[in-house]
Write a structure and sequence with these properties.
By secondary structure, this protein is α/β, with parallel strands linked by helices. The protein has 2 domains: 187 residues, Metal-dependent hydrolases (TIM Barrel); 69 residues, DNA polymerase, domain 1, CATH 1.10.150. The chain has 11 helices and 7 strands.
Amino acid sequence: MTPPRIPDEAPTAGWDIHCHTVFSDGTETPQTLAGLAVEKGLHGVAITDHDTSNGWPEMLRACRTAGMPVLLGTEVTADDEGVSVHVLAFLYDPSNPAISGMFRRTREARLGRARRMTQLLAKDFPITWDAVLAQARQGDSTTVGRPHLADALVAAGVYPTRSDAFSGALASSSPYYIPTPSPTTHEVVRAVKAAGGVSVVAHAGDRGRNRHLLTDAQIESLADDGLDGLEVWHRGNGPDQRQRLLAIAHRRGLLVTGGSDWHGSGKPNQLGENLTDDGTVGEIMSRGVPVDRIAGTLDSVSYES
């Protein structure tokens, strides 16, 4: 395999390949995402909702209507020796039993965790499980998590914004917080590879997310298991971490990506604020399952889990 070209500076044009919709904790539909991508002049866009591919059919239709090239992806929640890690999985076969089973188990665990946190919060705040579910815009197709608890607290007048709720009662240091039950990073990387997909560790240098970051050795161990890339161009990665991640990418021949981590009004992140260059997207496409082939399998995949 030819080593990928690794950009040492953030691209100023290209694709935003880290975006969330109402199928997880974003506030906007795939149609809105596709339309905004056109307005901003992006070369292409990806859907990467948490632990689900439920939004893929709608995203495909929206991008075809808008004339916007699309990558299909998922942001997978994982754990690496106590470090919470998000892995972007692109262009995998959603009908693959290993990966669909992993998502089903993770979504069920997320739902149970959210219900237990709601029970704890209800002792001190005006929040109910029904109020949390009311924030899930796509019903059972939505991956329910902390953002929906935050939105319920905002709707009840406890906090003015989702960010305030995350800094308060929903902070990881809060007595109401329960960690997300997750597969290991190695299980995720192997499952994505088995499903024909491409794996990229998201925002690995974001100190705002974790007290402890993945070490060089942990990242290189994932590369040994088939990790494809690192998301370097992300607002959470400071300059020193970007340089560290670039050095690892050069050393191990990993892809370097960028994305906004757009959530609509759920976060201040602006669509297109960080991008992935066309060459890197082309490499992701060459390694993953072709979008047209995935589209042909979507009708046979269950989206009820």
